[in-house]
Write a structure and sequence with these properties.
Elements: H1 3-16, H2 31-52, H3 59-79, H4 88-94, H5 100-114, E1 121-123, E2 129-133, H6 135-154, H7 161-183, H8 189-205, H9 210-256
Antiparallel strand pairs: 1-2
Helix pairs in contact: 1-2, 2-3, 2-5, 3-4, 3-5, 6-7, 6-8
Length: 261
């Protein structure tokens, strides 16, 4: 059985039993095989969760429970024994030349770390990730919610709704943006994507970055003037060369004209 088979098995089990609630307890009768099936389901559920929350990115907040379940099942495989006192790790991993369980686990970990998800959650006394968000993450989500609520409340209230939004929501947006800039090195991809969407909406959709527009006008004028200088130079050079050529022809004509005796 390869990695694709493990994930496919999990997806099949999650679809065919989607209305069932799986117990966290692995029955002794099922042994290591039941543990393997549970690990496959957990891996598939996490993969499905990340796909469903890939855009806008919310994989960390939405998939934390699925991720922790994968970790739990993987650690159980490493530590638990079956009814014959045989270690599940030896039965499921050591004799697996394709290392399917190991690859499935690292596949999940790779997705989790690429999104820097651990940055958004607290850790327990042993340094392990738990489902509680960090204070910084909670604060950023609260500030974002305030900004979004302000924008939603003041949009479409009049013909010039964008300007009203810019005026009334400026303080909320600046508070959010300032707090994010102070903590952006310690946030997960959920927060990064959230800020990118908010900034795009604020500056492009609503057109609230007036200071940037004021700076751009003289910059564009200066750039345009600099672009015209080469053109003016070549035009001047062309007319100067034409004038010089005309003077040379005139001088030659004067010397070639016979003098009447």
């Amino acid at each position: 059985m390869n990695l694709k088979s493990v994930i496919s098995l999990g997806i099949f089990l999650s679809i065919t039993h989607r209305n069932e609630v799986y117990s966290e307890i692995i029955s002794p009768d099922g042994g290591c095989q039941e543990l393997l099936d549970s690990f496959a389901r957990a891996t598939a559920n996490y993969t499905m969760c990340t796909i469903q929350h890939a855009r806008p990115i919310s994989v960390c907040e939405a998939c934390i429970d699925s991720y922790l379940k994968v970790l739990k099942r993987y650690n159980q495989i490493l530590k638990l024994y079956d009814e014959h006192d045989k270690q599940c790790k030896e039965e499921l991993m050591n004799v697996d030349r394709l290392q399917v369980v190991e690859k499935g686990y690292h596949f999940v970990e790779d997705l989790w770390h690429k999104a820097s998800c651990s940055a958004c959650f607290k850790k327990d006394d042993q340094g392990l990730t738990i489902s509680n968000m960090t204070d910084t993450t909670v604060k950023l989500l609260d500030l974002s919610e305030l900004t979004d609520a302000c924008i939603l409340t003041n949009q479409n209230t009049s013909v010039n709704s964008s300007q009203i939004v810019c005026d009334k929501c400026k303080e909320d947006y600046l508070n959010l943006n300032s707090y994010y800039n102070c903590h952006k090195s310690a946030v997960c991809m959920d927060i990064v994507d959230m800020m990118n969407i908010t900034r795009y909406k604020w500056s492009t959709t609503l057109g609230c970055c007036m200071d940037r527009k004021k700076i751009e006008i003289p910059f564009l004028l200066t750039t345009g003037a600099l672009c015209l200088l080469p053109l003016l130079f070549y035009i001047s050079l062309y007319f100067c060369s034409k004038n010089t050529e005309f003077n040379i022809v005139l001088e030659q004509t004067r010397w070639q004209t016979p003098v009447n005796s």
